[in-house]
């Protein structure tokens, strides 16, 4: 008979190795990241759960068949070594192979960069993610999600989990994946919009981290057909600027957390963290005009921002205000969803916004309609049948406070923060028009 109590072995981290002093006995496990036989000594880079450490091994202690990507356990003495990456190394005394690979790696993990084209890297993703730079991207991404949860929980938000199989699209249009749901029509959720609004009536402030699906036939460096949304919705707001202030608070927390707890990844990736202390807000029409005037081009679409315009507005914010971020507010009603509240002072525009980060839209948000009659009227004005949204309209019918919220594209935020040139590099296993595996 055996009883378990929830105790488990704690990992020996690189930080513990470094903090142990000049002569620190350690026992660690990891993967052989690289292996160099220098004659009298063998230099082994051990890839830990986080980070990597140089290990110096006498040849006579090494078991036969040791190679890259062997899983090993080793014991020795950690010591300062200025010439080693990170300034520390382990003088190995005992090394045991736990498992051996059946085939050599298809990519060279020991090099500073993979230098593969995008399609090749994505096809080899399970192996390529072991590269130190590649996995560092997703540690940074982890920090962004941690900060989102920590900050909003501290602001009295409740985390919720909404369904991803739905009976109607939240955004409308044709960019929605259709499903056969036991003989009924169903769809993959374009966003948790209806459900997070519903939960405002329950908890007042809610957030969610979850997948979002868009059946967009794009093949651009900024689009994915499945991405991760960081969404929140908050009630009893005075204006949509309350939502903007909340996102700014999150961004400040995220940059603080990354600087304190992810310094190794930031250094490895060469990331310069942006300041979120003071973010400018520009009206949509003003932002378009100011950028066009400064950079000498004609405005082609008066109702939306083209990617090139986003880049120019981002450049304008950097040059004029010294900010990598800029909120663009009051988007035209024509280009916003049916639940967006129109500006009472000019109904052609909405009380909504996008956040541009280094020239790319990473957030869309705004104030929502909370009045039942107004919401039904706007649906009918757009040729929509309110009867198809009966369960959603239930919240309006039975009373809702003024509320608003936003959705952040995690992969886009990661992409721009890490200086990547394609959003697929910021997705573990990206889904686009042609990719269903790995």
Describe the structure.
The chain is α+β, with helices and mostly antiparallel strands. It contains twelve helices and 18 strands. α4 packs across α6 and α8 crosses α9. It is elongated. The chain starts with 13 loop residues before the first helix and ends in a 20-residue tail after the last helix.
What characteristics describe this protein?
alpha+beta; 12 helices; 26% strand; 438 residues; five-stranded mixed barrel; eight-stranded mixed sheet; single chain
Strand content: 25-35%
Summing up helix and strand content along with how strands pair, one would put the structural category as alpha+beta
Q: What distance lies between the first and last C-alpha atoms, to the nearest angstrom? A: 42 Å
H and E string: HEEEEEHHHEEEEHEEHHEHHEEEEEHHEH
Could you state the oligomeric state of the chains shown? single chain
Question: What's the mean pLDDT score?
Answer: 94
- List segments where confidence is low: pLDDT < 50 over at least 5 consecutive residues: none
Tally of DSSP β-strands: 18
Q: DSSP helix count?
A: 12
Q: Give the neighbour order of strands across the main sheet.
A: 6-10-11-18-17-16-13-12
Assign an overall shape.
elongated
Work out the radius of gyration: 26 Å
Proportion of helical residues: 25-40%
Largest sheet descriptor:
8 strands, mixed
């Amino acid at each position: 008979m055996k009883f378990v109590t929830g105790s488990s072995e704690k990992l020996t981290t690189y930080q513990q190795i470094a903090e142990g002093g000049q002569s620190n006995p350690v026992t660690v496990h990891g993967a052989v990241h690289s292996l160099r036989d220098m004659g009298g000594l063998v230099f082994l880079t051990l890839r830990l759960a986080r980070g990597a450490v140089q290990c110096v091994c006498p040849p006579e202690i090494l078991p036969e068949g040791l190679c890259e990507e062997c899983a090993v356990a080793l014991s020795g003495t950690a010591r300062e070594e200025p010439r080693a990456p990170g300034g520390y190394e382990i003088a190995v005394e005992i090394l045991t192979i736990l498992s051996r690979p059946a085939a050599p790696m298809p990519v060279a993990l020991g090099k500073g960069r993979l230098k593969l084209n995008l399609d090749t890297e994505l096809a080899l993703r399970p192996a390529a993610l072991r590269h130190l730079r590649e996995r560092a991207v997703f540690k940074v991404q982890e920090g962004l999600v941690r900060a989102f949860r920590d900050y909003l929980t501290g602001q009295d938000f409740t985390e919720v989990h909404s369904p991803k199989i739905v009976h109607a699209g939240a955004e409308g249009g044709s960019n929605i994946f259709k499903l056969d749901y036991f003989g009924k029509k169903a769809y993959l959720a374009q966003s948790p919009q209806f459900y997070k609004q519903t939960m405002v009536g329950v908890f007042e402030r809610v957030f969610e981290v979850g997948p979002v699906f868009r059946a967009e036939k794009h093949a651009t460096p900024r689009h994915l057909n499945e991405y991760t949304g960081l969404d929140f919705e908050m009630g009893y707001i005075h204006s949509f600027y309350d939502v903007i202030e909340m996102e700014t608070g999150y961004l400040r927390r995220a940059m603080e957390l990354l600087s304190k707890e992810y310094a190794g990844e930031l250094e490895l990736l060469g990331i310069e963290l942006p300041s979120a202390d003071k973010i400018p807000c520009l009206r949509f029409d003003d932002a378009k005009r100011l950028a066009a005037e400064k950079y000498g081009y004609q405005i082609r679409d008066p109702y939306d921002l083209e990617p090139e315009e986003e880049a120019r507005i981002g450049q304008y914010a950097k040059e004029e205000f010294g900010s990598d971020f800029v909120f663009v507010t009051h988007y035209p009603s024509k280009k916003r969803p049916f639940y967006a509240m129109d500006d009472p002072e000019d109904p052609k525009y909405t009380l909504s916004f996008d956040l541009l980060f280094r020239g790319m839209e990473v957030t869309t948000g705004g104030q929502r309609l909370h009045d039942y009659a107004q919401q039904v009227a706007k649906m009918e004005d757009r040729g929509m049948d309110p009867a198809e949204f009966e369960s959603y309209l239930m919240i309006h019918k039975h009373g809702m406070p003024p509320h608003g919220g936003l959705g952040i594209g995690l992969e886009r935020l990661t992409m721009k923060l890490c200086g990547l040139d394609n959003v697929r590099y910021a997705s573990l296993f990206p889904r686009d028009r042609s990719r269903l595996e790995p």
